[in-house]
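Q: What would this chain look like folded?
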Amino acid sequence: MSAEVISIPRAALHVQVAQRLRQLLVEGRIGPGAKLNERELSERLNVSRTPLREAIKMLAAEGLVELLPNRGAVAVSLTEEDVLHTFEVMAGLEAQAGELAAQRITEQELAEIQAMHFEMMAAYTRRDLSTYYTLNARIHSAISAAARNPVLTQVYQQVNARLQALRFRSNQDGEKWKNAMNEHEKMIEALAAHDGNAMRQVLLSHLRNKRDVVLEQLRAARGEKAAS
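A: My prediction, written as structure tokens:
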């Protein structure tokens, strides 16, 4: 008796390709400003160019990729001014979402976020940055969803997409990664206490600290480039 062959719908394929490509961009394996070479990526991801192109369009809509005339697709590269403006908006969005989530979160949602937090702590202990960041992003998204404001959630996702790669790299400094973990502990405490004001304050502080680390890294990279 032969096994039934199940074909993957084309729509599902380009979504899967987008997920894999997103990880390459976020983790810096495709650096800021780098051109997305379709032939190389097709071979690397073992897919044809059609779903790859559809995936690239998805990531362009998210803000991870720019489609430039005569250059094709390139990984987004934010200037210092871009970073300042984007984090300014992001801090307000996350603070608002956190405050609403603390007021509206259900016991089941809280339990799920706490479970992800414990998994994230384990990844931090192993120094597994890739798994840590995946769980970190899921926690922030779950907090946004718990706010129960679909407009806020949609805007949050759009703005956050521009910062994913920078937020990932901000944890590559050991001491700053430790500080981020401590801030996440405070978020869990504020959610469990349904303390909207405490949640707002810890998220504002969290985003300011992320912004400062990202700016420090951008300036250091710019200095290294100028010296070489």
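The longest strand covers residues 65-68.
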